[in-house]
Design a protein that fits this description.
Elements (H helix, E strand, L loop, with lengths): L7 H13 L1
Length: 21
């Protein structure tokens, strides 16, 4: 994975997908 922080938009998307299951 890249060392740079993940963009906010991408983090929100990932969190949303994980929340949905």
């Amino acid at each position: 994975m890249a060392k740079q922080p993940v963009p906010v938009a991408k983090r929100l998307t990932i969190d949303g997908l994980n929340d949905m299951g």
